[in-house]
Amino acid sequence: MLVSELMLQQTQVARVLPKYEVFLDRLPTVTACARASVADVVTLWAGLGYNRRAVNLHRCAVDVVVHHDGRVPDELSKLLELPGIGPYTARAVLAFAYERDVAIVDTNVARVLARWAGRPLGRREVQELADSLVPAGEGWAWNQAMLDLGATVCAKRRPSCARCPIVTTCAWRARDLGEPDPAVGSFGVSAGQSTFAGSDREGRGRLVAVLRSQGTLDSNRVAEAAGWPADPERAARVASTLVADGLAVWTPDGTLTLPS
Length: 260
Hints:
The protein is mainly alpha-helical. The chain folds into three domains: 2-97, Endonuclease III, domain 1, CATH 1.10.340.30; 107-174, Endonuclease Iii, domain 2; 200-257, Arc Repressor Mutant, subunit A. It is built from 14 helices and three strands. The mean pLDDT is 93.
């Protein structure tokens, strides 16, 4: 459950499914993940992007083994103490793995709730509203339904109101979908990702890809590997962010490598 939720953060299901199966085949338990090297986990993460999630997953697995006897906690406060685990992931684990009556709020659910309320909602407000709507004993099914409603019916563009089961109580629909859309600016509703091409994220991805395939990278080849042969300062800065995030380390001889 924890692996799938981390993989699905900002990554489409179609890309995650084959990687998820391979990952669990290689590292089927929390203990196996904790015992693996960071390099192994990062390598298995290839193709999913946002590689820092792989480091967080490894750190999380180590924490679970050391402090929770290898069992992922079933309390919200303890889940939130784990490395890289935020409110959404913690609640997803509780709802789907432990079938607790807690509400999950992703960008799709946040959009549904803001439109239904007819106004942008704040951080605390949207979570409290979501929690108040969960029927007792139906947390698992309710969250599945809400996630699907936001993803397939109450879409960002051209919502299918004729198919919506809550259309008669939707405040935005009562205003004939007048502008502005209440979801715009509401907490949790994604504003979209920045352009990837030419970004630092693209350079980071290139460097990690080279480290996965070659294991090491000499400092004098970092700029070329990042895709900016004429801008070594930018490449060095981006490489330093990989080190800060635990995705790479500098060896004493000036070689960039995956962490052990």
